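=== RUN LOG ===
request id: a7f3
mode: sequence -> structure
chains: 1
length: 245
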Amino acid sequence: MRLGPGHGEKGFVLGPYEYTIWFICTLLEVAVVVCAFRKNAIRRYAFLNAFMGASVLISVARYNVLHHYGFASKEYHYFYYYSDFLLTIVLYLALTSLYSHVFSELKAGQYVRLGTVVLLCGTALFSYAVVQQSSSKLVMTHFVIELSQNLYFVGLVLTYVLRAAVLKIRETRTRLIQLILSTGVYFSMSAANFAMQNLSHSRSTLFEYLPPLFGCFLPLSWAYAFWRIPEEARTVPSQLAVVPR
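=== RESULT ===
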């Protein structure tokens, strides 16, 4: 669930709606791993399943920390943002693994891995440059939050670049295309959510109800891709894009 301590007003507590969405989201994350296992896709999409498995474990751990210390506690604050940082890194690796799948026939795996490391390091250096002048003693925490948000914007750009590459090389693997599209939509929603939070100084009904739902979209779409779309399924190239006349 992408609802952290900084998303609400001071004194805000999780209610039945947030807990219900949190529980549903965790079940959907479990469903992704189960569906991938049943369809023999665990190893082929290892990073995607690693992300969902880590999400389940961290969700359980967050609940324990929340139960013991409370939503507004510094313990939950630290644990949420550092665990979110870990999940963001794994999701970034999952996205780059989709690049490897798309360019597998071009033997470009080593270039994808090199680009992954270079881009990650560049984003980390940029994030550190943003927070290094902070007078706060929590520079490391600010760096983790800044890097996580920046990686979401980087991921947003990368998914649309990958989508363009899929159209260019006329990739036809339906499951792979579904995974790429759903990941792009998720990055778009998350990046938009971060942008709205930075621009808004007050919590609205929109911010209250939408962020928890964002966390349900990705596992739901990935579970659908693994369970309903066979690995051998192919999409007719002319259906990948509609060109207006």
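=== NOTES ===
The helical segments are 16-38, 46-69, 74-102, 109-131, 139-169, 174-199, 205-228.
DSSP finds seven helices and no strands in the chain.
=== END ===
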